[in-house]
Design brief:
197 residues, alpha+beta, SH3 type barrels, 2 domains, 1 helix, 32% strand
Length: 197
């Protein structure tokens, strides 16, 4: 009577192992065949969070910015992890046209869509501002790897005050110096306004 029980238990173990193997393969195949659009979020890991602080010679200081140089503000709309909710110190304030752009990195890799921001003064021979959406022009901005000398497509133009800021990342406490750029609309004076965005 014992033999059938042992044999029966062994058979159940084999069946269970085979079932688990098939399940694992199915999960792996599902992940492998997942639609590409799930992985198309823009990666800002190659973005130069800090900069030398140099600005184009033709860039004009804002005459009466909402956030004067030396003042502080809260970043309510950040372009990358660690920005939103961080306290920013204003390093520079400039009146210009800011652009949302898309481009193929000169270093290769995935096309970058809807990058914020490049300013008019960072474009090669752009002519008069603002440029119309769809316009293609080269930039000498180096905010991200592969951006400098890239041909960019203008997606949106915004006449605004842009700010160069210092801030401490809310995710890893890295100190970021002379970050380019945030617009006036992306800053607030009140911490409570951040959660409402």
């Amino acid at each position: 009577m014992k033999r059938p029980r042992i044999w029966h238990g062994g058979l159940l173990t084999i069946v269970a192992v085979l079932a688990l193997s098939a399940c694992s393969k199915e999960v792996a195949d599902t992940e492998k065949d997942a639609p590409a659009e799930q992985h198309t979020e823009m990666d800002h890991s190659s973005m130069n969070h800090s900069s030398s602080g140099e600005v184009p010679a033709t860039l004009k200081n804002a005459e009466n910015p909402m956030y004067p140089v030396g003042s502080t503000a809260i970043i309510k709309d950040g372009h990358m992890e660690g920005m939103k909710g961080a306290k920013a110190t204003i390093v520079g304030a400039y009146d210009t046209t800011a652009y949302i752009i898309s481009y193929e990195p000169t270093t290769g890799g995935q096309r970058v869509e809807n990058h914020k921001w490049v300013i008019h003064e960072e474009l090669f021979n752009p002519g008069s501002a603002p440029l119309a959406p769809g316009t293609e022009v080269k930039t000498d901005a180096s905010h991200m790897e592969g951006m400098e000398n890239a041909t960019v497509r203008i997606d949106e133009a915004q006449q605004t005050t842009v700010y160069m800021i210092d801030y401490v990342s809310t995710t890893n406490n890295d100190v970021v110096k002379n970050h380019k750029w945030v617009t006036e609309e992306e800053l607030t004076k009140k911490q409570k306004d951040v959660g409402a965005v």
